[in-house]
Write a structure and sequence with these properties.
single chain, alpha+beta
Length: 87
């Protein structure tokens, strides 16, 4: 999975991959090549560190052709989105 926070991957038993600093489309392409199936996008690092991922927090369904929204968690002003990278 792509995730900024290593503990989430560890406790879920998943393999963690570092998200490249690139566009959403290129990150998805990179993930496919590396066998990454899930991507967690969190307000913890967007927009400060990865402003190009902000559309995934605002309206992840606009990328339905490459990503499937599995869950959206809102905790006060912090949003986290769990996405599946489509084949």
């Amino acid at each position: 999975m792509f995730d900024r926070m290593p503990p989430r991957a560890f406790f879920s038993g998943a393999w963690r991959a570092v998200v490249p600093y690139d566009s959403i489309e290129r990150v998805v392409e990179f993930g496919r090549m590396r066998g990454v199936h899930y991507w967690i996008v969190s307000w913890d690092y967007v927009p400060r560190m990865r402003p190009q991922f902000e559309p995934l927090l605002q309206d992840p369904d606009q990328y339905a052709h490459i990503l499937r929204t599995i869950a959206v968690y809102d905790d006060e002003d912090r949003r986290t989105v769990l996405l599946e990278i489509l084949p």
